[in-house]
Amino acid sequence: MKFLRVNMTDETVLWQDVAPQYKTLGGRALTSIFINDEVLATTDPLGPDNKLIFAPGFFSGTSLINTSRLSVGSKSPLTGGIKESNVGGTVAFSLATLGICAIIIEGQADADSCFVLNIQDDTSANLIRADDLKGMRTYDLTRRLQHDFGTDTSITCIGPAGDSKLLSASIQSTDFDGRPCRAAGRGGLGAVMGAKGLKAIIVNRKGRIPAEIVDLDRFKKASKQYAKDVKTDEFSGEILPQLGTAVLVEPINAAGAFPTRNATLGQFEGVEKISGEAIAKIIEERGGQTRHKGCSQCIIDCSNEFVTSKGEYVTSSLEYETIWSMGGMIGNDDIDAIARLDFLCDDIGLDTINTGTAIAVAFDAGYGEFGDGEKAIRLVEEVATGTEMGTLIGNGPDAVGRHFSHSRVPTVKGQSIAAYDPRAIQGMSVTYSTTPMGADHTAGWVVDQNLEAFGGTVDPHGSEGQVEISRNTQIHMAAIDTVGLCDFAQTGLAAEGGFDNLMNMMSAKLGQEFSAQQWTELGTRVIKTELEFNRNAGLTRQDDRLPPMFYNEQLPPYNVVVKISDEELDSTFSDL
Amino acid sequence: MKFLRVNMTDETVLWQDVAPQYKTLGGRALTSIFINDEVLATTDPLGPDNKLIFAPGFFSGTSLINTSRLSVGSKSPLTGGIKESNVGGTVAFSLATLGICAIIIEGQADADSCFVLNIQDDTSANLIRADDLKGMRTYDLTRRLQHDFGTDTSITCIGPAGDSKLLSASIQSTDFDGRPCRAAGRGGLGAVMGAKGLKAIIVNRKGRIPAEIVDLDRFKKASKQYAKDVKTDEFSGEILPQLGTAVLVEPINAAGAFPTRNATLGQFEGVEKISGEAIAKIIEERGGQTRHKGCSQCIIDCSNEFVTSKGEYVTSSLEYETIWSMGGMIGNDDIDAIARLDFLCDDIGLDTINTGTAIAVAFDAGYGEFGDGEKAIRLVEEVATGTEMGTLIGNGPDAVGRHFSHSRVPTVKGQSIAAYDPRAIQGMSVTYSTTPMGADHTAGWVVDQNLEAFGGTVDPHGSEGQVEISRNTQIHMAAIDTVGLCDFAQTGLAAEGGFDNLMNMMSAKLGQEFSAQQWTELGTRVIKTELEFNRNAGLTRQDDRLPPMFYNEQLPPYNVVVKISDEELDSTFSDL
Lengths: 576, 576
Hints:
The structure is a homodimer. Chain A has helices at 27-38, 91-96, 138-149, 160-163, 189-196, 216-232, 234-243, 249-254, 276-286, 320-325, 335-348, 352-364, 373-385, 388-394, 397-403, 426-434, 447-450, 466-483, 491-494, 498-510, 516-537, 549-552, 566-571; strands spanning 2-7, 12-17, 52-56, 70-75, 82-87, 100-106, 115-119, 125-129, 153-157, 171-173, 182-184, 198-204, 289-292, 303-307, 313-315, 411-412, 415-416.
């Protein structure tokens, strides 16, 4: 396995042996430990001293299904702290099968220049100057790159938002069909890539270098069983293929936890028009695709292809978080507008969550009306054209809130919460507040442990047990993000012997027994490293807080406020 | 003495006895200790739980000359920490002679409503609803209020920038001639007043309540001597009356410390057109006024009245900091444009320093050309009309820098540095970085101790001695800001026995001996309180740093960078 180290200042590309301390790492553990090792915490995230690292998961490129997560790590210009954002598609698999366990981007190209990095095989990679690509949207860009470099490539790239270094800029990656519709959306890492002057990384998909696995038989046996368990599970085997992540719309809304109109309400009156069932029906009627494969080695196929009434491609994949942020959050029940907004965010290179919430804050401050999907579309288009308002939207909810001196801004560390109101699912308030990542839902998704409909056993409106649940989940997720396993394939862990199976694969790959305790230690080490970076960057306990709106405003229909005390929040990781 | 406590939520006005712990305080000691006592450090600065306190200096209303400083304290929406900003004019004297040692504004009026507080005498004060005043500029506003409430009033008020809660919004106060041209400019406290729904405070000037002085004879004798010393001093007795603060332009530029074109240069080629001598000559030729009295009880008369070539009033007083921020900092050598910008900032209610630097950052990011004074005027006009770009300018350099992802933003804690480049006067780097106030120059002006032309003895380009000098000056200034003495009247301290004279006045007023050590303890206590508030608000050592540009870019013509280490910065107040 190799590190590919790319210096944008010198325009050099170096193949490096992997230093011993990184050899048993992958994904988020690798990106976070590396960033903490090599980046000064107080550095300007958009300056030459920040670094951007792309790392496939520890299991990427093995025979284990659904391990195509690519972790992207850096100091975030949005949160001011460390960030790992991961994305599916095909890039992680392509890199891993070329024997590349990390690409490191350092330095900074001249302000006006623009490069692509072309990784042709396991020994040749080079920077190519391509100033004319600057400002290009991702769909046009990837078509152009596929024309120039071949269709048998995986591409990760930025759109105009990243070129303009906007704080909600995503890094998009091509999916199984070669479309740039998969996003490492959170933390504004697209702005870091833009600041470096790197527009795209093109990775040959023909790598055949086998993953390093000490006990291959043991690994194969365990991974086979794991695949079977994921396939057998009702949620990952039947529901997700049918409805995709949009299946969450109805139960979360029923729980009064669907943040509506900038989180003034917990239920959206237009929910029936944007539910998983409604969307699947529309897609099927129009001849689009449900049960669509988005990522390498995926056996779940939770993706979809949304089309117009004439059957023309609109976007893929329309996901729960976007249906919320561009739907209920801005009061919009027009599914075609939501799908268009999803496409635009992918095309311009924007996090749909932060962007939808930015629009919601603008509407809440009186700049537009809740429910005006057409206005939302115009605003997102303005992000690309670079008007002042578009730039504010592209810089996220905090920028919009400051601009209008509007204090109802549902962010933590500058990053928007996701589609679970922390008042109606109190466990999410602990995750949003305390994760080193800003208000990420994937950092510790405890909805299942809170809501009875998901098998939850704690009171979602109470504080009891929430800190422990969030802490344990966050630690577990840090390890999951390290091995590169898709979140939805965690159903394999719930099967009988599922977790042992995962430990079996860890042991087989490493060539030494790996225990459940070591799994916890791995996750703990990742979070401890991230907390250390954030402290050095100047973040404090006061940054581990939800904004006052969640404490002061009762959320209908259950009229709840966040009940977790500051002391409870601070206890979450007080030992790390 | 009384506290006047005004609750904007309930629309109540309460006269209160002064609690014992505040009785021997005034000015900045009173505002900072009060804010730390009564405001939760993590509160939203623009929310109902923040408070805004106006306090005359401890010596205001006594026979001591030049004690007309009014301290305004609050949690700052600009810095996120505690703020004291003080202003001259006539309000402090009017309040003190009505026996009012503090006005406290708490709560928050409804978003659309707007009030004025009318203080008729020492027993009657009331809130008057005046929604039609919202958005009015300060010159029109004060003319209207003087018409309605009489010309024998002192007024402190906000302009449209404060109404819109912009982060560079100032609180303007009327000068000796009744013009709203004196600004508590820094920290965005105008936005706090706007958020409360308070447009203006009108104070009757006819108060005759004598100051509480235990040993009046001793006080009179000392204050008489002090006045004589200030009058005899060459700087306060001759130079300031002739040239005003603009006298600084040439020596600071000669030292290569005049931040030019967003601090890319230390000398401005157009300096001869905007020097103190040049301005005095223009004013005299046009029939304006130099040697103009701006504040109650002033014997220095450093103010001026700048007029057009036809003799029409443009602005008062054109000061060094504005000549820099609207001149060299934006590359503009047109003194008429500078004067117009000064007027516009007063009229719209904006800090000239933060606003000029915001424009400089915009120009540096490519939005306009350095030297385009007309564009600067249009941009400041846009602050009032509320365009997106105007709002960004009104929210200050950080908002503009974030908007354009431009990292050359010369601020600390979100607030612009002033007219002394910290590379060419290294002592200012300690003050800018470590003062709890954000990059305020008045918090610890150590130019005199750095530059040989001012009698300085340390190397202005070296780090040696700078921490100690800044620390001592900051502590001393915290005490000066407490008694309400004008900065320029500090020349009385340099006279033989001058400092003893000041201690004599402290002792006489308090009725017990007050030593030099107690003076230092007073200043130390103030800063300690402010640091405590900031820590509780979540500010850390990383907030006590200048931006990278001052460390990475050599400043011509002496090609210096900031040499004070992080450890030295952190040692400044490490014992507090």
